[in-house]
Predict the structure.
Amino acid sequence: MAEPTPFESADPLDEIQASLADLDAAGLRRRRRIVTTPCAPDVHVADRPDPVLAFCSNDYLGLAAEPALIDTLAQGARHWGVGSGASHLVSGHYASHQALETRLAAFTGMDDALYFSTGYMANIGVMPALVGRGDAIFADKVNHASLVDGALLSRADFIRYPHCDLNALAARLAASSAPRKLIVTDSVFSMDGDLAPLPELLALAEAHKAWLLVDDAHGFGVLGPQGRGCLAHFALHSKRLIYMGTLGKAAGVSGAFVAGERSLIEWLVNKSRSYIFTTGAPPLLADTLLTALDLIEHGDARRTHLAALIGRLKSSLRLERWQLLPSDTPIQPVVIGDNHETLAVSRALEAEGLWVPAIRPPTVPRGAARLRITLSAAHSFAQVDRLVEALKRLEAQHP
């Protein structure tokens, strides 16, 4: 009798359990926390008796529990019910969806827009609809995972360039003979908090007849006049721009959208699989997002306070060993390095009632584990000061 192969003799569940133990040993295992109160600076977590002060949500303008949005959602439920019933291309495209897309296009200065259920679905739907085998995607090495997955699904050549390295990108573009080229970048990089050099990237796209897809998940609602996003921040206009914005972060609700030339959006309606083959988002969410856009547009006071909080943290958090990365956005990462030390500091902060997540590989490079602080317009100066003092003290206690 032939000897069993290693694959045949191994129990898959045993392999999974061993792999989970390896994650524990490396300080890389992820666990979910159960939150029992609305998204806000002060939240309750199921395994804690006392509330924690959270510096971990992407609710940058403090809209997630905004009463005006709650009222609009309740009214929308009474009008529309709670489900859409079908995909957008069958019977699940409602008047509220259409009104939202029209408003989003106007708000971002684009011809048209398409509403997706999530940002992940938007990114994995756009790229395979635009490029395929024999084409080329040029992507920043620290782009969000959804952009990486969208590129891989397209089956185009996936060419990555060092973070924000324009010279390297230019060389890769010049060396490519692909008939269709697509440059892909985050606007605000989610783990570093820095901005992509969008004007220079657009110039390269124009020079090489390429598309430029910008994921503005962390800029929409925060950057630009009236929170209109990164393109408005840099005053960029081009037929080669494809803009993706997230509606579950600064907008406080759920979903995402892609905006661009009218023919481009019509093509995505017909070719984007993650749009075509899924049930439409509840129309009550589109109603709620229309109200959120009003609050964003008239939210200068919130953005001014948020900018002041960012300035307060940057000016007061002076560290000796750990590194506060240079960022002018609500994302303020503190790089510690070691996975276990980063976890220990995160837990020590929580023991003091402060919730700051530990971000570890593969989300960030090996040896670059960090605390990812995110600020919201709902925070106060006193709350930021409390976090700063705790971090200074813990750095001194963790040699």
Q: What stands out?
A: The first strand starts at residue 42 and ends at 43. The chain has two domains: 31-61+300-397, 67-297. The radius of gyration is 22 Å. The chain has 15 helices and 14 strands.
